[in-house]
Amino acid sequence: MSYRSATNVDSRHHQRAPTVPFARTSRHKPRRYALCQITEVLTLTSHYRWPLALRFIKGAIHGAIIVPVLLHTAFAVLVVALDHNIKDLGLPASIVFRNQTSYNRFWDGRNLLTVIITSVRNLTRSFLANSHRFPLVDRVETDRTIHILIAILYATKNHLRAGWGAEIIPGTSINPSTGNATLTPEYSDLLPKGLYGCDDRGLGLVLQLTFFVEQYIKKGYDKGWFHAPQASQMQVQLNSMVDAYGRMETIRLTPIPIAHLIHQKQVLALFGGVLPFALVDKMDYWAIPVVSLVMFTLYGIDGIGSQLEDPFGYDRNDIKMDFIVEDVRSEISVLLEEWKKAGDQGYEMFVGKRQSTVDGGDGGGQVDRADHANGAP
């Protein structure tokens, strides 16, 4: 570089351009929109800017308003689609799917309760039918085990309703919302004496009570009360009871995914908000009752699904567990009463004859219960 060139560079470098207020913020590039200069504008020359009508990024507001604009556009598309073919919307199918899923939970819960009741009946029948000739001590243990089977029904019902703590104080349970003890006489004479609960350590009362039944079956097999196949069938009944209890617990603790519920509620509300626009053009004022009828139907189906989702509660449409359990308790109480009479007086259950006559005694030895009660020999 020559001395003259270096001098020019240094002089330009050290020269200060005259400044004015707001010199840096003033507009430097003129906007010219003459047709003869379009080529220069489109080629982004250093002398001209894009026309304001063609600017979408730098300095524009589009980024801040794009979301609401797209929402309104989607709303317009939805209105047009409903106006052309409203029956193609998949909302009814979605609601029916939720309703059918909830009813399946209700029906499965009822069937599983029947499995537990059937197991209790079978075990009660087997225990009583094979123990009416036992000594008094063994009969007392059988009676205790039958009461435990009835208690399992109540414990299952209360467990599914979060009524834990019934075994802490005989005749009481803990209210899950307040933590206070509430009177439940149904437990007063069913639980084993001295039983302490393990709910605070995560063990439910139902599983806890099945251990007493298991021990009774094992003791009966060891003493020869039941032969091996019979004891095995009792074990199967007990396992079926625990399996049904676990399945009912799964229904109670596994709700319908919240994402599905949120989406369904939003779509249902959107459908109700758009439906009048789709019908008013063709139906005029008749659109009002039609919209009311359609939304009554859809919200009704959704409400039914909401109630049936948890079928073990106290709602009017839930499983009538209180009445079902009470009926089974009455049924087993009759069996216990007949079993005790048959063991005390030597009768065959439900027949009213002396046990000796059934075992091969002469016909003259048959005496009815009524005659025996009146002192007949």
Task: Describe the protein's architecture and organization.
By secondary structure, the chain is mainly alpha-helical. Helix content is 61%, strand content 2%. It has a two-stranded antiparallel sheet. Helix 4 packs parallel to helix 10 and helix 5 packs antiparallel against helix 10. The longest helix has 39 residues, at 91-129. The protein is elongated.
In helices, the fraction of residues equals 55-70%
Instruction: Spell the H/E element sequence.
Output: HHHHHEEHHHHHHH
Kindly provide the radius of gyration, computed on alpha-carbon positions and rounded to a whole number of angstroms.
41 Å
List the quaternary state of the chains. Answer: single chain
Low-confidence stretches: 1-7, 31-39, 354-377
SSE order and pairing:
Layout: H1 3-14, H2 38-42, H3 62-85, H4 91-129, H5 136-160, E1 172-174, E2 181-183, H6 205-222, H7 228-253, H8 258-283, H9 287-308, H10 321-345, H11 355-358, H12 369-373
Antiparallel strand pairs: 1-2
Helix pairs in contact: 3-8, 4-5, 4-7, 4-9, 4-10, 5-6, 5-10, 6-7, 8-9
Keywords:
377 residues; mainly alpha; two-stranded antiparallel sheet; disordered N terminus; disordered C terminus
